[in-house]
Design brief:
The protein is built from 4 helices and 39 strands. It is an alpha/beta fold. It has 3 domains: 87 residues, Udp-n-acetylmuramoylalanyl-d-glutamate--2,6- Diaminopimelate Ligase, Chain: A, domain 1 (3-Layer(aba) Sandwich), CATH 3.40.1390; 202 residues, Hexapeptide repeat proteins (UDP N-Acetylglucosamine Acyltransferase, domain 1); 31 residues. Strands 8-11-14-17-20-25-28-31-34-37-39 form an 11-stranded parallel β-sheet, with no helix packed on it. A hairpin with a 2-residue loop joins β22 and β23.
Length: 340
């Protein structure tokens, strides 16, 4: 897809400084873009590349417009402008409506006439596939589950029984939705499995990254609201509820029955304990551990940033002495208080 620069500026909500008739065919990095490409600058560390860029145009913030040697697409959030431009210039190939000969579809399933079902897919009784949705090779849609219209389901995705996915879902390879939650009870040292009776309900415009797993609920459903974005290798436990437009980065683990609010941003490798609540608009930085409820919006952190090994070892040794040091300090304070 090609755009005149003037049209591209209008579509992404930017002010254009330069020739509106330049033709843009693609996206490229700031230091590698040619005259047919649009690029962007949102991170200050790449500022040195701006003066030598050969791009057809650069998406950037107003304070950098005067330093741009080529046409500029100016808006307050260049990264958002890049996201909009990338959507417009995407070369994603739409699936051709068809059902592969090797696909196995139960007669009691419902597949829209313009859907695409890849090789070796299995669709069980009572399941449904919405209009324009594509299922990649080897994917599975369990009994009484549904995927809404215009979804893009990649290869080897498993959607278990009783899972309902909304419109325009993007689900990457290896995702499993609706496997049993981790429910077990201890009987005198022996673990007894607790059957899981709930399902999973996923809203519209949700994206789920490769090899992420979302467990079914124990009694009620696990719920992922509209617009949630999940990265790769995330574990969502049973009965978790994630509010609309929350984004979660890779390797996060969310314990069962946790409730995460709307518009939260959770960075990589965060661990969230079960049976707690996180308010709307909470930002958790990478590797944070969340053992308790968070009731107010804001940025929260835990964990120890990387240090040179010899410094870290000294600090850890002192950390082990903190309790003793605190006791001695209180004793000194009491003595000083008595003398006063």
């Amino acid at each position: 897809m090609s755009y005149r620069l003037g049209e591209l500026a209008e579509r992404i909500g930017a002010e254009l400084l330069g020739d509106p008739d330049i033709i843009i065919d693609r996206l490229a990095a700031l230091d590698a873009a040619g005259p047919d490409a649009v690029t962007f600058l949102s991170n200050r560390r790449y500022r040195p590349y701006l003066e030598s860029t050969r791009a057809g145009a650069v998406i950037l913030a107003p304070e950098l417009a005067d330093a741009c040697p080529v046409p500029a697409l100016v808006l307050d959030d260049p990264y958002l402008g890049y996201a909009r431009a990338a959507t417009l210039l995407s070369r994603t190939v739409e699936a051709t409506p068809c059902i592969a000969a090797s696909a196995v579809i139960d007669p009691a399933a419902a597949v829209a006439p313009d859907a695409s079902v890849g090789h070796h897919c299995v669709i069980e009784a009572g399941a449904s596939v919405g209009a324009g949705t594509s299922l990649g090779p080897g994917s599975f849609l369990g009994r009484d589950s549904s995927i809404g219209p215009q979804g893009r389901i990649a290869a080897r995705v498993v959607v278990c029984q009783g899972v309902h996915i909304g419109a325009r879902a993007i689900i990457h390879p290896g995702v499993v939705v609706g496997a049993d939650g981790f429910g077990i009870a201890n009987d005198d040292g022996v673990w007894v499995k607790i059957p899981q009776f709930g399902g999973v309900r996923i809203g519209d415009d949700v994206e789920i990254g490769a090899n992420t797993t979302i467990d079914r609920g124990a009694l009620e459903d696990t719920v992922i609201e509209n617009g949630v974005k999940l990265d790769n290798l995330i574990q969502i436990g049973h009965n978790v509820h994630i509010g609309a437009h929350t984004a979660i980065a890779a390797c996060v683990a969310v314990g069962g029955s946790a409730r995460i609010g709307r518009r939260c941003a959770i960075q990589g490798a965060v661990s969230i304990a079960g049976h707690l609540e996180i308010a709307d608009d909470v930002h958790l930085t990478a590797t944070s551990a969340v053992p308790n409820t968070i009731r107010e919006a804001g940025v929260y952190s835990s964990g120890m940033p990387i240090q040179e090994n010899r410094v870290w070892r000294r600090n850890i040794a002192r950390l082990r002495q903190l309790d003793d040091m605190a006791r001695r300090l209180r004793a000194v304070e009491r003595k000083l208080g008595d003398r006063a």
